[in-house]
C-alpha cells in the first residue's frame, strides 16, 4: 500500500508547512470578534446603528455608557442572544447570524457569560449550577472529574467549599456573582462577557470582582468584554474603553460610539459628553429630560 | 423638448404627491386599532405554532436528560395526585346529590350510578381534572418559566449551549402528555368511589342494584373517550403554559400575568378541544354502535 503513495518532495513539504504556519499566524492575528455595520431594531425603535468595531484576542474591553444606550444589546448581539437587524457579528471569522441553532450551540461553548444578577438556576444547588456547562457540553466526563473541576473553579473565585450544596437564594449578591463567574469559566472559554459585574455590590465586593476579572485574565488566555457603569471597574480592568451613546439622542450622521481608546485617555476625551459621563456630571440632562429628550 | 419635460415633471409630481388623507380621524384610528389587533393575533398564533414545532422537532430528535424528565414527572404526577383524587371524589358526590331527587321522584334512583359514572368518565372527570391541572400545573409552569425569563436564566441556558425548548419545554410537555391522562383515570376512579359512597352509604340506595346498573351503562368506549381527550388536554396545557412563561413580560406583574393567562387560555382551549373531540368521537362511536346505548 505504501508503495502506491507518491514520493514526498521536500521542497513541496516545506512550502505546505510554510503555508500552514502563515495561516496559523493569520488566524492568531485575526480579531476574535468583528462587528460590521451592526444595526439592531426592536419594534421599530433602533437601539444600535452603524456599529463597526473589532476586538483583538486577549484584549479586555470595557463598554460604558448611560442607561438605554444599547450596550447590553451590543453584548447580547455578540453572543448571538439577539440577532442583528442589519450587519453581522463574526466570531473567530465565523458569521454568527448564518449558523443553525446546533452550530450556534457549538460556538457558544467558546463563550462565557457572567450575567448582571448572576442568573443562577434556582432549582439547582451551587455545585450543579457550576457543573451544568460540563454536563451539557462534554459527554462522557465522569462525575469524579466534574467534582474536581467544580471545586477548583469554586476555589478560584474565592468561595469556601461549604457553599457548594447551598441554593443560590442562600448566598449574598457578591457570592452569587462569583458563582456566576465560576460557571462561566468552567469550560475555559475564549471570550468572557461580563454584564455589569459590580452593579449592586458594596465597594469592597466590587473590587473583589474586579480583581477576579484581572486574575481570570492572568490565569487563562481570555478575551473579555465588560459592560459597566462603574468607571472604577472600567479603569482598573480594561485596556480599551468604548463609550456608547443613545441612538435617539444623536443626529443621523453621528457615530454611536463616542469614545474608543485606552482608559488613560478618558479624562482627556475631546467629546464633552464623554468627560461628563466619566466625571458623573448631570450637565444638561435634567433640562433635556424635562423636555422629553431623554 | 420643453413640452416633454413639462409632461415628465407633471407625471413625477402626480407620482410623488401624497394623498391628502386627514391624519387623525375616528375611522383611521378604528382601522389602525383593528389592524394592530389582527396583526398581533396572527403573529402570536404563528409564534406559538413555531414554538410547538420546535418542541416536536426536539422531542423526536433528541430525548431530554433523564433527571429533567423525572423531576417534571414528579411535579406534575405525584404532587398533583392528592388534589386530583380529592376533586374527583367530590365531583362524584356532588353528582349523586344533584341527581338523586330527580331520579327518586320517578323511582329510578338505583340507576344513579350509571348517570354518575357515564358523566364522570366521558366528560366531567377529564374536563374538571384538566381544569384543576391547568391551574395547578399550568400556572406553576408559566410562573417558573416566566421567572426564569425575567431573571435571565433562560438566556443563561442558551449561552451554555443548551436549547431552552429542549431543556425546559420538552420534559414538561412529556409529563403533561403522559401523566394528565393517568391523573384523569385517578379522578374518574375517585369520582366513581365518591358517587358510590354518597349514593349507597349516605342515601341508602340498594348496593347490588346500583352496581348492576352502573356496570351495564358504561361501555369501554366511554372510558376511551375521556382518556383520549385528556391526552389533548395535557398537551395543550403544557404548550400554552410554557409559551406564556417563555414570553413573559418583565417584573412581578409580568410573571403574574403570564400565570393567569396560562390558566385562562388553557381553560378556553380545553373547552374548545372538548367540543371538537366530542363531535369527532360521537361520529366514531355511532359508526361502531349504530344503535347507541341507553342509560336505562
From TrEMBL, chain A:
Residues 1-22 are annotated as: Disordered. It holds the Pfam family ABC_tran. It comes from the Bacteria. Residues 33-271 form the ABC transporter domain. SMART domains: AAA (SM00382). InterPro entries: AAA+_ATPase, ABC_transporter-like_ATP-bd, ABC_transporter-like_CS, P-loop_NTPase. Keywords: ATP-binding, Nucleotide-binding, Transport. One of its GO terms (molecular function) is ATP hydrolysis activity. PANTHER family: INTERMEMBRANE PHOSPHOLIPID TRANSPORT SYSTEM ATP-BINDING PROTEIN MLAF (PTHR43023:SF6), PROTEIN TRIGALACTOSYLDIACYLGLYCEROL 3, CHLOROPLASTIC (PTHR43023). This is ABC transporter, ATP-binding protein.
UniProtKB/TrEMBL annotation, chain B:
Belongs to the MlaE permease family. Coiled coil: none annotated. It is found in: Membrane. It holds the Pfam family MlaE. The keyword rRNA-binding does not apply. One of its GO terms (molecular function) is phospholipid transporter activity. Keywords: Membrane, Transmembrane, Transmembrane helix, Transport. GO terms for cellular component: ATP-binding cassette (ABC) transporter complex. This is ABC transporter permease protein. InterPro entries: ABC_MlaE_roteobac, Permease_MalE. The chain crosses the membrane at residues 37-61, 73-97, 176-203, 223-243, 263-286. The keyword Transport applies. Signal peptide: none annotated. It comes from the Bacteria. It is a multi-pass membrane protein. The lineage of its organism: Bacteria, Pseudomonadati, Planctomycetota, Planctomycetia, Pirellulales.
Amino acid at each position: 500500500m505504501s508503495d502506491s503513495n507518491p514520493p514526498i518532495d521536500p521542497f513541496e513539504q516545506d512550502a505546505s508547512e510554510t503555508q500552514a504556519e502563515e495561516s496559523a499566524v493569520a488566524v492568531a492575528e485575526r480579531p476574535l470578534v468583528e462587528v460590521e455595520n451592526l444595526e439592531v431594531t426592536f419594534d421599530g425603535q433602533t437601539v444600535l446603528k452603524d456599529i463597526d468595531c473589532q476586538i483583538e484576542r486577549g484584549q479586555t474591553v470595557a463598554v460604558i455608557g448611560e442607561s438605554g444606550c444599547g450596550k447590553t444589546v451590543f453584548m447580547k448581539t455578540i453572543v448571538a442572544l439577539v440577532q442583528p437587524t442589519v450587519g453581522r457579528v463574526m466570531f473567530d471569522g465565523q458569521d454568527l447570524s448564518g449558523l443553525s441553532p446546533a452550530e450556534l450551540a457549538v460556538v457558544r461553548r467558546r463563550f462565557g457569560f457572567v450575567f448582571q444578577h448572576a442568573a443562577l438556576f434556582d432549582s439547582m444547588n451551587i455545585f450543579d449550577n457550576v457543573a451544568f456547562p460540563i454536563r451539557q457540553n462534554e459527554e462522557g466526563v465522569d462525575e469524579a472529574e466534574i467534582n474536581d473541576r467544580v471545586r477548583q473553579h469554586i476555589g478560584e473565585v474565592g468561595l469556601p467549599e461549604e457553599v457548594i450544596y447551598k441554593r443560590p437564594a442562600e448566598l449574598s449578591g457578591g457570592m452569587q456573582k462569583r458563582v456566576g463567574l465560576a460557571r462561566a469559566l468552567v469550560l475555559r472559554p475564549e471570550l468572557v462577557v461580563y454584564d455589569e459585574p459590580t452593579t449592586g455590590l458594596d465597594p469592597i465586593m466590587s473590587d473583589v470582582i474586579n480583581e477576579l476579572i484581572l486574575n481570570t485574565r492572568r490565569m487563562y488566555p481570555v478575551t473579555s468584554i465588560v459592560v459597566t457603569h462603574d468607571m472604577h471597574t472600567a479603569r482598573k480592568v480594561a485596556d480599551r474603553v468604548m463609550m456608547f451613546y443613545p441612538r435617539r439622542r444623536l443626529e443621523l450622521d453621528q457615530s454611536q460610539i463616542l469614545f474608543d481608546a485606552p482608559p488613560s485617555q478618558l479624562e482627556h476625551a475631546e467629546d464633552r459628553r464623554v468627560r461628563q459621563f466619566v466625571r458623573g456630571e448631570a450637565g444638561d440632562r435634567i433640562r433635556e429630560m424635562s423636555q422629553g429628550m431623554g | 423638448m420643453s413640452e416633454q419635460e413639462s409632461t415628465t415633471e407633471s407625471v413625477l409630481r402626480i407620482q410623488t404627491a401624497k394623498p391628502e388623507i386627514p391624519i387623525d380621524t375616528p375611522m383611521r384610528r378604528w382601522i389602525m386599532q383593528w389592524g394592530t389587533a389582527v396583526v398581533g393575533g396572527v403573529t402570536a398564533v404563528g409564534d406559538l405554532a413555531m414554538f410547538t414545532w420546535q418542541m416536536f422537532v426536539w422531542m423526536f430528535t433528541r430525548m431530554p436528560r433523564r433527571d429533567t424528565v423525572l423531576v417534571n414527572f414528579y411535579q406534575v404526577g405525584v404532587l398533583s395526585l392528592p388534589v386530583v383524587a380529592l376533586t374527583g371524589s367530590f365531583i362524584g358526590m356532588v353528582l349523586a346529590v344533584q341527581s338523586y331527587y330527580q331520579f327518586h321522584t320517578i323511582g329510578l334512583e338505583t340507576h344513579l350510578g350509571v348517570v354518575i359514572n357515564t358523566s364522570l368518565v366521558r366528560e366531567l372527570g377529564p374536563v374538571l381534572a384538566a381544569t384543576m391541572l391547568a391551574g395547578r400545573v399550568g400556572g406553576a409552569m408559566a410562573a417558573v418559566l416566566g421567572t426564569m425569563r425575567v431573571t435571565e436564566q433562560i438566556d443563561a441556558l442558551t449561552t451554555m449551549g443548551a436549547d431552552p425548548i429542549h431543556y425546559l419545554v420538552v420534559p414538561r410537555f412529556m409529563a403533561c402528555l403522559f401523566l394528565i391522562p393517568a391523573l384523569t383515570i385517578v379522578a374518574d376512579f375517585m369520582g366513581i368511589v365518591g358517587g358510590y359512597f354518597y349514593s349507597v352509604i349516605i342515601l341508602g340506595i340498594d348496593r347490588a342494584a346500583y352496581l348492576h346498573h352502573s356496570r351495564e351503562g358504561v361501555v369501554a368506549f366511554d372510558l376511551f373517550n375521556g382518556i383520549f381527550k385528556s391526552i389533548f388536554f395535557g398537551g395543550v396545557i403544557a404548550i400554552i403554559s410554557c409559551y406564556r412563561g417563555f414570553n413573559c413580560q418583565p417584573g412581578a406583574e409580568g410573571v403574574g400575568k403570564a400565570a393567569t393567562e396560562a390558566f385562562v387560555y388553557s381553560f378556553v382551549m380545553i373547552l374548545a378541544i372538548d367540543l371538537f373531540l366530542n363531535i369527532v368521537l360521537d361520529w366514531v362511536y355511532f359508526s361502531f354502535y349504530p344503535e347507541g346505548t341507553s342509560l336505562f
